[in-house]
Amino acid sequence: MTELLSATPEGIARAAALLREGKLVAFGTETVYGLGADATKGDAVAAIFAAKQRPRFNPLISHFPDADSAFAHVAATQAARLLAEEFWPGPLTLVLPRLPATPIHDLTGAGLPTLAIRVPASETARALLRSAGLPIAAPSANRSGQVSPTSAQHVLSELDGRIEAILDSGPCAVGLESTILDLSGPRPVLLRPGGISREALEEILGPIARAESDDHAPRAPGMLRSHYAPRLPVRLSATSIAPTEALLAFGPPLTGGCTTFSLSASGDLTEAATRLFAGLRALDATPGASAIAVMPIPHHGLGLALNDRLERAAAPRG
Ligand code: TXA
Ligand code: MG
Fold first, then answer.
1. Total domain count, the chain
2. Could you read off the pLDDT of 42-91 as tens digits, one per residue?
3. Which residue puts its alpha carbon closest to atom 15 of ligand 1?
4. Is the CB of 114 under 6 A from ligand 1?
5. Domain range for residue 19?
6. What gap in Å lies between CA 219 and CA 191, rounded to an integer?
């Protein structure tokens, strides 16, 4: 059963305590309801993907109570600070290079070198974030493929029994997701139109490019096939291993490769999800390895997202 919490000091404190325990808590923001979890805990973030039944590890937005706590995790530019002063708290998400020292888990950022950060306008949401004292990863609180929820009832109808609690702060004021602006490259790029208009951003930044689907512009990561490809070729569904291959193991490892990184010795998909990006990076850095061989991963639950990401890593490079 999912607990329905009201937006009182007690309800907020309870929601914050659950988040600190690594549980999933949906909460209202001014845009839509988010499905929150501790962004620094890989298994909490993996649970978001499992609850949403998302067949893919999209990067998630990390939420903060104020600009200072948000900018502690990224390399903030002058433009980012100007926009934060003008539009935060509010429906604007900024994508910036992640700092090497951030405790935010690489599953939250789907292994990308950037992080999406946002300070929501909702008072209740910020009280929750302040009380939790953690970066909170939160995609919209709907099942994959459904529309974003703008009330606690919407969330309950899709996720009842799949998440620990919902903090009910009433209907969302904006009802449309945040605008996502990528400031990690040489020019600002609008990745998703939303609650803050492009014109409002252009008043501060000048002309902003729209994400294109060519290989030179940054864009919504879901559209990329081999964006996360390691340097080494990737061979999937390996049931044997060559001496020069680096093994990404699932379950009892094959023997004979030049090195092994175990996603989960016991065959646990949640554990594997938390170790995927670290594993690809570690094996990719193996001196002398000819390829990364990946053992078969069952195609159910989080296995769908794991296989999706591995297929991208193995896709031909263009
Ligand atoms: O209004 C909102 O933004 C809501 C509330 C809950 O804050 N959240 C939301 O999250 O809409 P979600 O996961 O449904 O959409 C987040 C989008 C995804 O399309 C994802 O690809 C993009 O943000 N995103 C996240 N991190 C990114 C990154 N490092 N680079 C580029 N895009 C990123
Ligand atoms: Mg969404």
1. 2
2. 999 999 999 999 999 999 999 999 999 999 999 999 999 999 999 999 99
3. 139
4. yes
5. 3-210
6. 6
